Amino acid sequence: MKKEELKFFIELLAKTQEAYDKSQVKKDNPNWSYSITATRIIPQSPLIVGFNWGAAQDVKYRSQDVYPLFPFGKIDDLGSMVRMIRYFKQYCPEALGGMQTNFCFFRSKEEADIGSEDLKLSTPLFEDYLEYARPTQIITFSSKLKNYMKDSGLVEVIAEPTIKNGNRSVYPMKAELTMNGLSKVPVYYLPHPNSAIEGDARKKCWEMAFRTE
After folding, report:
1. What percent of the chain has pLDDT over 70?
2. β-strand partners of 177
3. What phi, psi does 184 have (nearest 5°)?
4. Domains plus CATH for the chain?
5. DSSP strand E in the chain: where?
6. Alpha carbons 92 and 53: distance in angstroms, whole number
7. CA 113 – CA 121 distance, rounded (Å)
8. CA 20 from chain center: how many Å?
9. Exposure letters 86-109 (e unless 16+ CB within 10 A, then b)
10. What pLDDT, in 10s, does the model give residues 140-160?
11. Among 89, 122, 93, residue whose Cα is nearest residue 105
12. At what angle do helices 116-133 and 3-21 cross, to 10 degrees?
């Protein structure tokens, strides 16, 4: 670990506390608190991004105060994401040595608990994370984050194909990040591990994102 990593982490914690104190989600449930990163912040590596950190209704959480020293592939409890490890190994193995965080650092029980004002408070924090991390690519499995990035003009969509999934369809996305001075950082949206996606459809989504031909 480099000293500047820990310095950045401590500074971002302080900024997050200040923003969280102003948030509506804290007013609604002060027990949920916040977290910054699930992994070590490893500049110039892939970044996996969710929408926000989860919480249970009647559980009191501490704000994050320990800096992780491991990459994404070494997280002890990956939850549903463990189902995606074989896809990462096949299509994007470098992500296993990369980073994981969430766009919104504030915890909540439901994604809907994070309103537009809280997103405004948390966006500069995520921008600070990006400015330090300078990710080589961003991968998300959150449809809400995908829609928010599109609607807010944070990404420029390159492709959003329709892929048949039984009697339904899925819509993976390939885009480029346009926020905070980062230019042409690839952004990929893939179906969530818990989504009912047929094996062939999920494979086609990953191939859309990472094929090089």
Report:
1. 97
2. 155, 185
3. 55, 40
4. 3-210 (3.40.470.10)
5. 47-54, 99-108, 138-140, 155-159, 163-165, 168-170, 173-177, 185-189
6. 24
7. 14
8. 18
9. ebbeebbeebbbbbbbbbbbbbbb
10. 999 999 999 999 998 999 999
11. 122
12. 170
Cβ neighbours of 157 (radius 10 Å): 14
Beta strand pairing call for 138-140 and 185-189: parallel
Burial of 159 (0-12, 13-18, 19+ CB in 10 A): exposed
Report the amino acid identity of residue 201: A
State residue 48 phi and psi, 5-degree precision.
-95, 125
Quick: pLDDT tens for 53-62: 999 988 999 9
What does the alpha-carbon distance between residue 114 and residue 53 come to, in Å, rounded to a whole number? 11
**Letter for the amino acid at 18?**
E
- The Cα 191–Cα 171 span in angstroms is 8
What tokens appear for 3 in the block?
């000293």
